[in-house]
Specification:
Belongs to the class-I pyridine nucleotide-disulfide oxidoreductase family. Helices cover 35% and strands 25% of the residues. With 471 residues, the protein is of the alpha/beta class. It folds into three domains: 152 residues, 3-Layer(bba) Sandwich (FAD/NAD(P)-binding domain); 100 residues, FAD/NAD(P)-binding domain (3-Layer(bba) Sandwich), CATH 3.50.50.60; 120 residues, 2-Layer Sandwich (Enolase-like, domain 1), CATH 3.30.390. The longest helix has 19 residues.
Length: 471
């Protein structure tokens, strides 16, 4: 068995692993990259990229359905197979950036096989032994399928298989009302499917209830049936005819089931015990430096057991590179990590929600709100439903929530404000181009100072004095 000695061995070629490998090898480190599945991982092949491509097609269909003032509405003619061709084309266009050929061109040794630890400093993969100074576990996660009675014999889809459908589902039953569930529900509804979402607790239950309500109202207005507070107790059926039985004894029948109840970290079979790497069902146990119980082994992205977002994996990669490649100290502080639900309207969050901020900061908290129905760009485009909410403590934002068009783009400013510990005065003092949706953030920041400027009797007296003195 051939022995390869290297500086860094990266296990997993998703967002986090590819970022570590690309950065390390271009800085001069020897890198071995191991991937048993498809290069690019879940995000490229079954997650972020195909879902947003599908959502884009669904938006185009909905735009035709509603038209605009002076522009006639018409029922869209949806070619579902052609939509899936668009999804495949988007993946194909992005794939070369994540390809084996590119990374071998950068200087990585790429092994397309499953990796298994044989000791604290060595793995086996593809009939080869790889001994490294540092290892990075970046294996990502897989869809979690709960052990519901009947699941073994009932056909169902996950995010890994739904994009392969060429024929439009007649009635898609989505089990799970989190971001993935509601995004896929709305996209398929707009493409002509009947859709029911079943959630055992609350739809978008992790989000600020006030913002979630705006999205939920939009979903219901488009004809999506939402069933909340009901666990699924049994599945049955065959291709094209499935039944979901709920805890109250009622049932939902449809043509397809989509499982969207969460994800499970992919660590099975890696023999982490041989490497002395502590782990749980949630992932590798890491410290703030993303280092495991084996000081040679780091974990990034979903494998690190925290927030499961592609941008988090990329952020983790930079933290590991600073330590493992450059020898510099670095820690992961998740307080400024944004998240977005890509429905229409979008829902975006960074930092603390209002409820979290009230629990942590109590009376020191000030909540500022700016509504889109006062934003001229939103009014001009007929998309003025939504608002921004900013949680402020001692003049600094500790969280921001936005619901409305392009909320995912708008939240970036507040992610910067939190990570750089900017004061509200910095946002209030920026010059925002007019007319843009981005003005809502400046309006929110300005609203924080309004009581001090417009409701302060001492300031008014001072201004009157200045007006008498200045010639």
């Amino acid at each position: 068995m051939q022995l390869i000695e290297t500086d860094i061995c990266v296990i997993g070629a998703g967002s986090g692993g590819l970022s570590v490998a690309a950065g390390a090898v271009q800085m001069g480190a020897r890198v071995v990259l191991i991937e048993a599945g498809e290069m690019g991982g879940d995000c490229l092949n079954a997650g972020c990229v195909p879902s947003k491509a599908l959502i884009a097609a669904a938006k185009a269909a909905e735009a035709q359905r509603h038209g605009f003032r002076g522009v006639a509405a018409q029922e869209p003619q949806v070619d579902f197979a052609a939509v899936k061709d668009h999804v495949a084309a988007v993946i194909a266009q992005i794939a070369p950036v994540d390809s084996q050929e590119r990374f071998e061109g950068l200087g990585c040794t790429v092994i397309r096989a499953f990796a298994r630890f044989t000791g604290p400093a060595e793995v086996e993969a593809g009939g080869q032994r790889i001994r490294a100074r540092r290892f990075v576990i970046a294996t990502g996660s897989r869809p979690f399928v709960p052990p519901i009675p009947g699941v073994e014999t009932t056909p169902y889809l996950t995010n890994e298989t739904i994009f392969d459908l060429r024929e439009r589902p007649g009635h898609l039953v989505v089990i799970g009302g989190g971001p993935i569930g509601v995004e896929m529900a709305q996209a398929h509804r707009r493409l002509g499917c009947e859709v029911t979402v079943i959630e055992g607790a609350k739809v978008l239950g992790r989000e600020d209830p006030e913002l979630a309500a705006v999205v939920i109202d939009a979903l219901r207005a488009e004809g999506i049936r939402l069933v909340e507070g009901q666990p699924v107790v049994r599945l049955s059926g065959s291709d094209g005819a499935v039944e979901v039985v709920l805890g109250d004894g009622t049932s939902v029948t449809g043509t397809h089931i989509l499982m969207a109840v969460g994800r499970k970290v992919a660590l099975d079979g890696m023999n982490l015990e041989a490497a002395g790497v502590a782990h749980t069902g949630k992932g590798v146990t890491v410290d703030a430096r993303l280092r495991s119980s084996n000081r040679r082994v780091y974990a990034v992205g979903d494998a690190a057991g925290g927030l499961q977002f592609t941008h988090v994996a990329g952020w983790h990669a930079g933290i590991v590179i600073r330590q493992a490649v450059l020898g510099l100290p670095a820690k992961a502080d998740p307080r400024a990590v944004p998240r977005v639900t890509y429905t229409v309207p979008e829902l975006a969050q960074v930092g603390l929600t209002e409820a979290e901020a009230r629990k942590l900061h109590g009376d020191r908290l000030t909540v500022i709100r700016a509504d889109l129905h006062h934003n001229d760009r939103a009014i001009a485009e007929g998309k003025d439903t939504g608002f921004a909410k900013v949680m402020v403590v001692k003049g600094r934002p500790v969280g921001a929530s936005i619901v409305g068009p392009q909320a995912g783009e708008l939240i970036g400013l507040w992610a910067l404000a939190l990570s750089a510990r900017l004061k509200m005065s910095a946002v209030a003092g920026m010059i925002a181009p007019y007319p843009t949706l981005g003005e809502v953030s400046k309006r929110a920041a300005g609203a924080y100072f309004s009581p001090q400027l417009f409701a302060n009797p001492w300031l008014k007296r001072f201004v009157r004095l200045v007006q008498r003195i200045i010639p």
